[in-house]
Amino acid sequence: MPSYMEVATEIAREAGALLLNYLEKRPAWEIKGEQDLVTEADRASEALVVSRLHQYFPAHSVVAEEGSGEDRKSEFCWYVDPLDGTTNFAHSYPAFCVSIGLLQGDEIIAGVVFDPNRNELFSAEKGAGAYLNNRRIRVSKTADLCESLLATGFPSRKRHEDVNVYFFHQLGVRAHGIRRSGSAAIDLASVASGRLDGFWEFGLNPWDVAAGLLLVTEAGGSYSDMRGGKFALTSPHLIADNSLLHNEFVARVGDVFNGTIHVPIPGLTPGAPVRY
Length: 276
Ligand code: IPD
Ligand code: CA
Ligand code: CA
Prior knowledge:
Layout: H1 4-25, E1 29-32, E2 36-39, H2 40-56, E3 61-64, E4 76-84, H3 86-90, E5 97-104, E6 107-115, E7 120-125, E8 130-132, E9 135-137, E10 149-152, H4 164-172, E11 177-179, H5 184-192, E12 198-202, H6 206-218, E13 222-224, E14 237-241, H7 246-258
Parallel strand pairs: 3-4, 10-11, 10-12
Antiparallel strand pairs: 1-2, 4-5, 5-6, 6-7, 7-8, 8-9, 12-14, 13-14
Helix pairs in contact: 1-2, 5-6
Bound molecules: D-MYO-inositol-1-phosphate (IPD) and calcium ion (2 copies).
């Protein structure tokens, strides 16, 4: 019997190939919920992943973003994002992936993130390290936020209520730079592989992060909620980093929560021209 990780790897590769096929056809997008895009490719990828997981593990529960998973009351639960980065995908911007994570009870025990555009397969099993295409990966050694490359994301839901621009500004004036890939799972895989030093975001869902968080910890990184408390898959915000930066990252984010603004965003007067 293949391991959980081997099964997840095989399925993620199949789903990734399916996404690339759909990409060439430029499938139409639709709006789901408030302002979230979804395409036929999201649903087809999810149908593939969920049915293959049920074939291998008929007793396991599956939670999948587009709603086709089933709660089979198992201690094993797979969290599936069949296409993380749908907005990118819908615009043919090549930054998206398939993310599959497995929890046993509260613990993430296996995770795979597959980026079909780069043919990069990130995988981890609890206690066995994190890998990129079978090569061991580790988080970066950057110890100072001033020397870091960070990433964040802006969920499409409730964007008029999104306060993340304040965090973006305060961290952006400190770090070497801030990236916004449009795929939280790729961002977490990038922290795990040392390409990014840290990542934060509000309002993620369990399927966005289950696999990526295991990649980060198995590569030597850490995560918490943005106030430094324990992160649960349903927490409203997340910080993940290379461990070395964690305290400083949480402290600077805490400044913004507390209203201690080190560098104010240049003011705009409504109705007046923008000065620069
Ligand atoms: C989204 C991506 C994006 C993040 C959003 C997620 P989706 O997932 O991960 O980077 O900023 O919060 O919802 O909708 O493309 O699967
Ligand atoms: Ca997602
Ligand atoms: Ca998705």
